[in-house]
Amino acid sequence: MSSVEPHRFADAPSTRTACITLDLENNWTFGGELEYLVFEHLDEFVGLVRRLDVPLSVFVVGKVLEDRPDVVRRLDAELDVEFHLHSYQHDMTGNVDIGRELRAGTRAFESVLGRDPAGYRAPRFILDKGDLATLSAMEFEFDSSVCPSYRPGVYNNLDAPHRPYYPAEAPDLLEIPVSVHPRLRVPMEQSYLRLFGDPYLKLLEHSRLPKTLVYNCHLHDFFHTAAHERLGRLKRLAFTRNIENSVAVFERFVSLLTEKGYRFRTLSELADDVRLREDERVVAGLS
Ligand SMILES: [Zn+2]
User: Fold this and answer.
1) Ligand 1 centre and the CA of 86: distance in Å?
2) Using CA of residue 68, residue 72, residue 78, residue 79, what is the dihedral sign?
3) pTM value?
4) How many domains does the chain have?
């Protein structure tokens, strides 16, 4: 059984719903002064989201909560925002124990935000077999780590559903996948929108986009820092291409979604909506 195999599909809203998510994390694997350098652009990011007037669902790394609670508190105070957990240490090696990551991350989350996280996203969208069952056992309500795409050497989820579902290995946990372009399978992420720029935006204009659309971004997708210059050559090219147009292309993308009739919600609002519809179905005797 694959970790992303569905048990059943969720009763997602029939209207077009878009959720903008931000993974709030350190700059790749850098330490020292480069580790959180991108946070110097917080003013610009807050300004961007306020201008667009969209709610934001933030997946925050536990270490960021410990090291930079000021950043989390500022987003909380100035934006229509909710927070979820993005692991404790944002491990890139695959050699960490998920239970330990979740316990340490939840402790950090609770100490800054005063409650337990309801949602989780795995670093690099990598889920191992059993991770979703662990999340469910620890009473997470939803996960948003599955991206039905393919990244060579990182993950292959081409068989995973494109819309919210309950996974076979954790039938009580709602999985809200990160969206992809339905034909091209390009993840709905700012890194790709930035990379492919205006021609891709044009293509999106004429594409049938998913009814429930989950879009992800990072601060480093928008703002160029000295940390970008320290990446290896290929990564540096990929992460800096078109970065000076990144904010503008994101603004046009949000306008496009509005024109297509999307309503912007947080992931918790989406999850609540799904459960409410399912409860109503049960009460009405339809399932
Ligand atoms: Zn991440």
Assistant:
1) 7
2) positive
3) 0.96
4) 1
Let me know if residue 256 belongs to a domain: yes
Give distance in angstroms: CA of 277 to centre of ligand 1.
Answer: 31
Residue 284 Cα, ligand 1 centroid: separation in angstroms? 41
CATH, residue 164: 3.20.20.370
- Please name which of 79, 140, 147 lies closest in space to residue 115, comparing C-alpha atoms: 140
Q: Is it the case that residue 1 has pLDDT exceeding 70?
A: no
Bridge partners of residue 189, in order along the sequence = 216
Which secondary-structure segment (H or E) carries 217?
A: strand 212-217
Confidence band (pLDDT; 50, 70, 90) for 263?
A: very high
Q: What is the mean pLDDT of the segment spanning 263-270?
A: 98
Distance 280 CA to ligand 1 centre (A): 35
